[in-house]
Every structure is written in C-alpha cells, then in structure tokens.
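Quick one:
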Amino acid sequence: MLFADKLIHDLDKALRVVSGVVASSRPNPAGQIADAAMSDEEKRHSAGLMRVNHVGEVCAQALYDAQGRFSRTPALKQQFAHAGIEEEDHLAWTAERLRELGSRTSLLNPLWYAGSYMLGTIAARVGDARSLGFVAETERQVELHLISHLEKLPPQDARSRAIVDQMRKDEVEHGQAAKALGAADMPAPIRGIMKMMSKVMTTVAYRI
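Output:
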C-alpha cells in the first residue's frame, strides 16, 4: 500500500472511530437482555460510565493501530490487528448502549484518539518487548477499571453489565496474548504515570 493510500485509510479509520460510526463483528452481549426501568439519575450514571468505556475503546483503537503500523514483526502486526477488531466490537457496543440511554459519546474523542496514537507510536518505536509490555500493563489496568464499573453500575442495568463483562474477558485475553509474545515488565514509574493518565481520562470522560 502506497503512503498516500495508508494515510487516507488511517484518516478514514480515525474519523469513523471518533464519530462512533463502526460496526461490530460479533453479536452484542446485551442483545437478548431486556432493558430495565431506571430513574433519570441512574440512566445518567450508567451513561457516564459507558461513555468512559467508549473513550477507552477509542484510545485502544488508536494504540493498536499505531503499534501495529510501527511494530517490527509480522506476528505482532497480526496480534494487534486481531485485538483491534475485538476492541472495535467494544466500541460499537458501548456506542449503541449510550444511544439507548439517551446520551452521547465524549466530545473530546478526537483528542483522546490523537494522544493515544502518539503513545502507541512511541511504544512501538522503543521495541517490540516494551510495546507488548505497554499492552499488557494497559490491559491489566483496564481490567481493574471494568471490574470497578461492574460494581458501580445500577444493579438492574443488566444490558450495560453484559457488555462490560464481555469487554473485561476480552481485555484479559489481550493481556495474556501480549505476555505470551514476550512482553517486558513495565517499570514502576511508567505504571504509575499510566494509572494517573487513566484517572484523568475517566474523570473527564464521565462528564464531557
């Protein structure tokens, strides 16, 4: 693929991701679950949490696209492509749930995508082992974040819970795959910075 073609492809992908116009390759886990009655406050809370999850998937798309583009081995490119497809499912499911809750995706999605693409590029440039280590640590933190959302979602919001639980299972598999491919452990200061950045993102995305 020529550079110009790659650029056009990447721009088209970025626009679809930040706008939420993506399709899933798997059925929505909430597909057969009836929506329960919730108060307006409960709906707003569920929407805030699902908006955070949607932003996480916007970031995941950017990270995996960048790491796959700049990784050095075919096996890694294939793994990032596979994980990216599953993350795109998550993107579609969370966007659909936000619409059901009468809410919207984050207004800052272009910023989240651009920042994550830059981080993914840097991670890929420092070597495959470090790049995979970044994935493994990211997925570990995302898993903990999703577990906390399962605790915070309204008890009767079974549709959101089904989506979040399937996301959690997929993220665990992505982290395990990264470790199997030779992920290097991330230094403690880097893990701390990643956790701090995640905290900022989740706080802002819940509201904006």
